[in-house]
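<amino_acid_chain>
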Amino acid sequence: MRTTSAIFAALALAACSPGAARDADPAAQARAPGGFPKPDRPVAQIVADTFSSGPDRDAADESGQLIRGLGIRPGMAVADIGAGAGYHTLRLSPAVGANGVVYAEDIVEHYVSGLRREAERRGLKNVRIIVGAPDDPKLPAGGVDRAVLVHMYHEVENPYALLWNLAPAMRPGGRVGVIDVDRPTQNHGTPPALLECEFEAVGYRMVDFQRLEGGLGYLAVFEPPAANARPKPHDIQACKAPSA
């Protein structure tokens, strides 16, 4: 993986700036069920089951950049969170091979129902469909080597709860990769400093960050916390979005 020191330094400074700082008093924050903080920034609406047209993403080799950036190999178990119509699921399936598995997860059942039919039509026997919840991807405990959230993190209604519930699914050495664009969440993107702050609030650590070719945004890679090292939900403090 490529790690750019200058980018990490810039993100670290931005994450510590007043625009991305966490509130000092967790009790003063709005809380979701389970005690998790609600995000202190807009949540984008789910508007479609795909980010953009396949040919544009194919031309930029988005899946290839994702696979290489996360070191996805045959035999791995990969979770495509917010899989939608399955753009990446259908391309991850051959990457992990017959001995691997792709968990295609989404909270919109008819999206993954269509994906199930397409996977069956293509004979992709290593694809497993999961209908998750807004605060829990409902993945098998200790069953995932890589999890990807592509052009959808800004649509997650309960990001702190989702990340907290994702951590127990990750195997030792697992990685979580996020592809998004650097713009406000209400405009269907996530500023990198805000993304890092929200992940760190749940115990994750950014280990790589790279700009993607083809104008696709960025790939941020995180090391998840051990399940027993996660902060308690009431101790998690929401991050403030940077000023527009």
Observations:
- The chain has seven helices and seven strands.
- Residues 109-122 form the longest helix (14 residues).
